[in-house]
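Quick one: structure tokens for this chain, please?
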Amino acid sequence: MMSQTVKGINPELAESKEFSAAVVNMSQKVKAIQGGVVQGGNVLRSEFYYQGQKYRIDLENNYGHNLRQ
């Protein structure tokens, strides 16, 4: 059950098809990265709408060579 693993988020939002699609979209973006990411800060973003409000999922590289293969 996804709502138990996503902290600080509305359980209905966490179980919505829009949120699930955004997570899949982010996963596809991560898998498409070639050669790694060495920059800091916001690396990838996936935006979606739920009940008329815009939300986003950000992936940040805080230190080191995250996502490097």
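The mean pLDDT is 77.
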